[in-house]
């Protein structure tokens, strides 16, 4: 039985990519009965019926999956944050980072509109860039009409399945517009991919770009901690993970426990205080959540 990857879902059909071809498939009724649904990004087995039609019979195990946008097996997310209009916001960035870490999706931080900064703000932003890079994140700063942007982004996209995320108004569309023309797409196709125009169907599609796959979804604009338990939170802060085995108590929550390696690292400046403050805020949010039944 042939195996392929769903690259597009539209109007009840799944378009499975196999051997340089897209096969239009339906899902088996059994998926519906089980409450399962094939997702863009899924690797699937399918049967061929007719020349270019098929039925998806098996969904392979997923590495991860998101609900909004509905997509599976993502390697990384480019978090698009503007430095101005709207202003750069570390708590929102950390919220995105934590949720991506919980899904085992590698975050890449992309700061847009850097040309709008004055000298003082630029120094401040460069300091944040350095601090997030010390944690282990890749941080790109982009300027309007940056001639070297393609050189920066191409190796990041190569060989990976990538989604874009960020608030509205931060420049996601501009970023997609910059990346997608390298495909030599007609502008109409780019407009469709960006979800522009009243009659455009909102759908998720994986497009080959820079030798990788990019989801041309409008992306997701907010993240909640609905699925996260309080014990999992600290594992989504890489700089905590690095040292928390040195805490005196196993399962230390880094709040009131004595001899906590994380709190000691904050005191000496190895962990930034704003990151710890955000951890506490997120922890309270998870603990205040209404129980699910």
Automatic annotation (TrEMBL):
PROSITE patterns: ENGC_GTPASE (PS50936), G_CP (PS51721). Residues 72-221 form the EngC GTPase domain. One of its GO terms (cellular component) is cytoplasm. CDD domains: S1_YloQ_GTPase (cd04466), YjeQ_EngC (cd01854). GTP binds at residues 112-115, 166-174. It comes from Psychrobacillus vulpis. Binds 1 zinc ion per subunit. This is Small ribosomal subunit biogenesis GTPase RsgA. Pfam families: RsgA_GTPase, RsgA_N. Belongs to the TRAFAC class YlqF/YawG GTPase family. RsgA subfamily. One of several proteins that assist in the late maturation steps of the functional core of the 30S ribosomal subunit. Helps release RbfA from mature subunits. May play a role in the assembly of ribosomal proteins into the subunit. Circularly permuted GTPase that catalyzes slow GTP hydrolysis, GTPase activity is stimulated by the 30S ribosomal subunit. It is found in: Cytoplasm. Keywords: Cytoplasm, GTP-binding, Hydrolase, Metal-binding, Nucleotide-binding, Ribosome biogenesis, RNA-binding, rRNA-binding, Zinc. Monomer. Associates with 30S ribosomal subunit, binds 16S rRNA. One of its GO terms (molecular function) is GTPase activity. Zn(2+) binds at residues 247, 252, 254, 260. Its main location: cytoplasm. InterPro entries: G_CP_dom, NA-bd_OB-fold, P-loop_NTPase, Ribosome_biogen_GTPase_RsgA, RsgA_GTPase_dom, RsgA_N. Its EC number is 3.6.1.-. Its cofactor is Zn(2+). It comes from the Bacteria. GO terms for biological process: ribosomal small subunit biogenesis. Residues 63-223 form the CP-type G domain.
């Amino acid at each position: 039985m042939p195996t392929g990857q769903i690259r597009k879902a539209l109007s009840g059909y799944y378009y499975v990519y196999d051997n340089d071809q897209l096969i239009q498939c339906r899902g088996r009724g059994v998926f519906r009965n089980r409450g399962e649904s094939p997702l863009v990004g899924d690797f699937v087995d399918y049967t061929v019926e007719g020349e270019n039609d098929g039925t998806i019979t098996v969904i392979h195990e997923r590495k991860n999956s998101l609900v909004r946008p509905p997509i599976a097996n993502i390697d990384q997310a480019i978090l698009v944050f503007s430095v101005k209009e709207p202003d750069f916001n570390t708590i929102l960035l950390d919220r995105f980072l934590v949720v991506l870490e919980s899904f085992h999706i590698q975050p890449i931080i992309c700061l847009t509109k850097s040309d709008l900064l004055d000298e003082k703000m630029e120094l401040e932003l460069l300091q944040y860039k350095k601090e997030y890079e010390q944690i282990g994140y890749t941080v790109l700063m982009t300027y309007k009409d940056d001639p070297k942007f393609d050189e920066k982004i191409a190796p990041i996209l190569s060989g990976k399945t990538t989604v874009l995320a960020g608030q509205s108004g931060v420049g996601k569309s501009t970023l997609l517009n910059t990346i997608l023309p390298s495909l030599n797409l007609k502008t109409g196709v780019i407009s469709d991919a960006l979800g522009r125009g009243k009659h455009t169907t909102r759908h998720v599609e994986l497009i080959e770009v820079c030798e990788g796959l990019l989801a041309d979804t409008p992306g997701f604009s907010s993240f909640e901690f609905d699925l996260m338990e309080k014990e999992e939170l600290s594992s989504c802060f890489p700089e905590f993970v690095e040292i928390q085995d040195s805490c005196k108590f196993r399962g230390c929550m880094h709040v009131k426990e004595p001899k906590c390696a994380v709190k000691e690292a904050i005191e000496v400046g190895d962990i930034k205080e704003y990151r710890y403050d955000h951890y506490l805020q997120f922890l309270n949010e998870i603990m205040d959540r209404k129980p699910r039944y």
